[in-house]
Design goal:
heterodimer; A: 4-stranded mixed sheet; globular; B: Rossmann fold; 6-stranded mixed sheet; two-stranded antiparallel ribbon; 13 strands; 36% helix; disordered C terminus
Amino acid sequence: MPDTIEKGVPLFEGADWDYDKLKLAFEAIEKIAVEELGLDTYPTQVEVITSEQMLDAYASVGLPLMYKHWSFGKSFAYNESLYRKGLQGLAYEIVINSNPCLCYIMEENSMTMQTLVMAHAAFGHNHFFKNNYLFKQWTDAAGILDYLAFARDYVAKCEERYGLSRVERVLDAAHALMDQSVNRYARRGPLSFAEEAKREQERRTHAEQTFNDLWRTVPTRATLEGLDSKEVAQLKQETNRHFGLPEENLLYFMEKHAPKLEGWERELCRIVRNIAQYYYPQKQTKVANEGCATFVHYEIMTRLHNKGLLTDGAMLEFLHSHTSVVSQPDYDDRRYNGINPYALGYAMMEDIKRICLAPTSEDREWFPDIAGNNDPYATLRDAWANYRDESFILQFLSPNLMRKFRLFRVRDDAAETNMRVDAIHDETGYRELRAALARSYDLSRREPDIQVVELDMAGDRTLVLRHAVYDGVLLDEKTSQMVLRHVVELWGYPVRLIETDAVTDQVMKTHNLAPGT
Amino acid sequence: MIIVDRRPNPKGKSLGNRRRFIERARAEVKGAVMDALRKRKITDTESGEKVSIPTKGIDEPSFRHGSTGGKRNYVVPGNKQHVVGDEIERPQSGQGGKGGDPADSGEGSDGFEFTLSREEFLDLFFEDLELPDMVKKRLSETASPELSRAGFAVSGNPSNINLIRTMRNSMARRISLKRPKLEEIEALEEEIERLAHTGPEILWREAKDRLDAILRRTRAIPYFDPIDVRYNRFERVPKPNIQAVMFCLMDVSGSMTERMKDLAKRFFMLLHIFLVRRYKTVDLVFIRHTSTAQEVDEETFFYSRETGGTVVSTALAEMDRIIKERYPLDAWNIYAAQASDGDNFGADSGRCVQFLSSLLPICQYFAYIEVSEGVDSFGDRRMDKTDLWRAYAEVAPAFENFAMRRVGDPAQIFPVFHDLFARNKAAIVNQEP
């Protein structure tokens, strides 16, 4: 076989790294990423940190700046104890969706690992962040760092002004509601965090200047008497309209309408929900994002090696690390802990590439629009830009891959004594399997769907939340009670949580909690 | 691309979070600290402590799906033999088993283990304690300043002139400015002398001019110049009085059982931790006594058996002797802790009182505990006072820094200790059990 590729001089030898080597490697990676893979990224800022700083970053949910809260201290202590005992290694990198894209690398890593990390994070994740529609729609990469700085200072100022415990009370409550405090549907253009910070000031002055007339105009029990059912219904409708019900974003609702909160408490709610919103795209794109980054680093490292820019030793070290990252233990393996997003994501990317270049007849039947189009990178770029995990799996998971992973579906119906296998990787099962796997990545099914649906404005101001129950899966009793306590804390009046079946609207369970109980 | 080295950034970014966390879990952490304390040696207070606290109070709840009930679907990899229709037994709850609903995999463990630093450990232990009568040397907080050498200065007291530095500067200046040397002048003068008698006048005049120039130069460039002078510089550094010696006195006669010694040991240990926290160095002196007293090491102190009568005053005498010999009062803070079962040779108690009265004024603190076999032994027998107790009780009211207590059970150790050092001392000291 003629070897037409010109062999270059290896970028580095040995394990030690220095700034010149990093620069050299980065440039070589960039060349491949841009010219051969067609990636489009934010400028990168590589930051070298120590393992302790990595633990710090872990503690503040991976963000470089964060306000102070005990839960971060807890997670630091937890991770540290695991790390010190050797039970858990540290991630090789952390990458922040910001512009410029911050990419943390640890000083302990070998040069090979640094190269891998740069390819993975600075190009793979970076490209995904810049191009995926969810990130484009929901996050403001240019402003996040400024906003976090604002949040940190604001919380610190509140702690100073109102005391640690009062701030903690609000933050605890807000953290508990974080998962239910994102906007799932776009209402306006991309948020600008810089604007947020400015508007906080405006909102406060506005609130100080205007008297909230809302509560006075609300009908009392007395005005309700003598109304017929039609009028009552109309009144209810009016209340709902007034408060924008139903509302899926719990913290947004608290921020805007909780009667007892002070201005700064509302702002804290806002900060927490803005951070929740910032993470919302990441939660929905684990498989696609990690798959993208892993595929990119594999492509880049292989190409570097083929060009002779990577020594065989370095390549072996890389492969060792790569294979352990993308391994998927079987369900009955002791190490099994759910489906590994790296494994599934990477396998799907490779599979898409294969379908584009060398499709089988099955692929042609399943993926008529991409099979054999001979442009795998454009196809992948399109996939990275326009899908989230759920839709990505639903669109691209091939029968070939289901066979390779030997996927099967188990139905667990509490009404039956045993669980039952109801779909496996065969002709009749492919579509069901794929749909079920995709649904398991759908956040609205993964996390409880809870909304504010009603406000008893005529009575004791009870806030009514509704949990839409799918397939009879109720909320965990113990944690729900604790979270409700936090809701009451914010709302200040009784709260009722009704669990109703999403399809039949039948009430399955009701939780009540009033202040002071 | 930009590379930024963040490694030199200030450390401990999450210290604030950690403090908040410990504050939050205070009750739990404190309980764990107290547990841990029972297992330690007296001197083993240098390390932090690994504490395991229950997650109660520090969990972060969120709405989650319950782990049972309803219909669920799991898609899992690695099918080996299953075909559609196979039934699988439901795994026992607690174990994720098939897939496991991702929503219910939280940090569900019952305990949470982490390591407290030594400071955090001790702070928690001592949070509401305060040593009484801090007057004498104002302890470690107030420091007596001491002069310490701190380089050289260009101004200062003449008595502090540093000759070597000054001379060195002077010489350097003279060399660099080419100040004529004394030998040079002398040689020239000799030559002039010679020329005056023998040489031609022109040469003599020339030499004379040269001498004038040299002398002018000598005058212009002084041998010493104020800029040469260097003074030794001293700084007043606060030097805390950082030494304390702790005397552990214990009766080891036959009447003291292992159990009683164990009680005593815990008592000593607590005091020691407290001192180590306050002072840079803490010396420990163990004095055991039967009918005679003896200074021993810790091992012997607690674990070797002795027989004989009981003469308490010998221990006090030994302590007095050691203080005089090794621990000058201006440099050491003296603490004493005495444990005994209260037995004493009848006529000795008077001597004890005497010794105690002379020791107490020089001690920062003197604590006496009387250990007994069990909780009940004190019971209501209020009249049943031991000789020693009665004797000490005479002295007690006169001294603020003396405290006595009775302990019958390990569980009473801490409360006793707490009492001894409690802020509101007046209410407690010398109170009878």
